Amino acid sequence: MVQTLCSTKALKLLGKFKANLHFHTENGENEYQFWLSYAAGDTFIFTNECFRFSRFEYPGKAPMCFLNAGHREARIIERAESGDNTARVILDLMRSWVVYQFHNTSDTARMRQKWRENDNRRLKEDGANLAPVLLRLKEQEPPYYHRIVENLRLILPFFADFEVAADKFGYVLLQWRERDNDMIFGAPQAADGMLRCIALVTLLAQPEADLPSVLILDEPELGLHPYAIEVVAGLIRSISHKVQVFLATQSTALLDYFEPEDVVAIDRVKGASYFNRLNSDQLAGWLEDYSISELWEKNVLGGRP
Length: 305
Fold this sequence. Notes:
Layout: H1 8-14, E1 16-24, E2 28-39, E3 43-55, E4 65-66, H2 76-81, H3 85-95, E5 97-100, E6 115-116, H4 130-140, H5 142-155, E7 159-162, E8 171-172, E9 175-178, E10 184-186, H6 192-205, E11 214-218, H7 226-239, E12 244-248, H8 252-255, E13 264-269, E14 272-277, H9 284-287, H10 292-297
Helix pairs in contact: 4-5, 5-6, 6-7
């Protein structure tokens, strides 16, 4: 599955944009296609939108269900709300994609603030409810909570444990203790890298049932120590057997923890993005002497500015 983003600026330059999404389930393949064209008012319209579900037990593809053209909002939403099961499944699958970005660690970042105790089911995209999620795991999923703590101790040797509890108003603040120290520290005192590290490890080491079906991480390496990147990469590889993970990265250190087939280099040519998945066989000669990151730096793989 591929997520593609397109702006009105790109549509204006290229004239149109096409996407074909395939979702494989136990019973068959769901397919959703749409074409966008640039329109007046610096916006876009759908010039084609269709979907179908083809069962594996039947030969060939099912006929497409076309949703006409000329509209500005996706009509698959209307079909799902009107009771079309295939449209509902496709929409639910797309809505389950989550983009996590823990870049904002400023003094006003939501991760550094108190959060409602009962808002703890899913970790928010910016980690805002990190403390309530940790409290829930500590009380209801102890093995996963301890997994998070142990991984953090690998990265932060001074870290002892979290001190998370709801106050009388039902709010929780991220707090922790350090080894050989009786003080309790709070999120406002955390270094940026430490806060991102806690959020990443909590996300990746939580129960698999709590993970989205497609997890998208934007530059997870920001502010992390090289050893922290190694631990995070290991957790990513571990959950990738259960959920689909997309990483957007510019980190050579992170790149070396994955196989060539895991890597897609993206180049922009005349306003269009070209995606090239690496191939171990094609790079065999190079990989005898160089790592993937070194080949990237030498511009053998593409993906350079």
